[in-house]
Amino acid sequence: AGWPEPRRSALTNSTDATMKCVYLDIAHVLHPSVSTYRLAHGKTPWADGHAPYENRPLLESALAPWPEARIVLSDWTAVVEGLEVVKAHLGSLAERVTGTLYEDLTTKVFRTVPLRNGGERTVGYSPDDVRRMTRRQAASPHVRWCKPAARVAFSSDYQGWPDPWKQEHVVLTDMHKALDRAAMQHRLATALAMNFGSDASSDLVSP
């Protein structure tokens, strides 16, 4: 079965050249992935005492030195549940959210494709196009469109990411413990400081 049609929202996005952008997955970051956890453990993370959005305070703390940083929700949670539903769980992070990667790509981002006659045509991304994309394939055209001054992205694996992204911009997620894992917290703090340019110390733990 395919993904359900998304609940549309009134989305305002800025292509501000000074924008600091975080591509945030809800699952794998703010709480463990339900599907992955069930596959590995035979039960949901909630059965083991985890709670939805349990790691929100950790991300709020990590982003505190950069109040200007904005969030693009990059997984399917907001597409399926609705953007406003998700934002209601995000506390102070909600005011940072500009929208979703899915909605931006399917309504605002365009690409040029070659034609057989040697010409070119400008087209958008269909919902099916986005569903088939890896996180890297979806983030790259969004960055070209949004043109943020700095960006950090969460991803469940490094597959397909070019080396500069892997080394500087990608925070590898932990599907079982999410941001509650110390190594992931340290990588996030390092990536934020590296990309957003501040000497402010993070409250997140060191490895």
Structural classification: alpha/beta
Shape: globular
Helix-residue proportion: 25-40%
Strand content: 15-25%
H-E order:
EHHEHHEHEEHHEHEH
Q: What's the end-to-end separation, in Å?
A: 41 Å
Biggest sheet, spatial arrangement of strands:
3-2-1-6-7
Overall average pLDDT: 85
Report the uncertain regions.
1-14, 199-203
Task: Tell me about the largest β-sheet.
Answer: 5 strands, parallel
**What is the helix tally?**
9
Gyration radius (Cα, Å) is 17 Å
Q: How many strands in all?
A: 7
Keywords:
207 residues; disordered N terminus; five-stranded parallel sheet; 9 helices
Offer a quick outline of the entry.
The protein is of the alpha/beta class and 207 residues long. It has 9 helices and 7 strands.
Q: What does this protein look like?
A:
Helix 5 (101-107) packs across helix 7. The strands form two sheets. The protein has a five-stranded parallel β-sheet with strand order 3-2-1-6-7, with helices on both faces. A two-stranded antiparallel sheet has the order 4-5. The chain is built from nine helices and seven strands. The protein has 207 residues and is an alpha/beta fold. It is globular. Helices cover 34% and strands 15% of the residues. Strand 6, helix 8 (163-168) and strand 7 form a beta-alpha-beta unit.
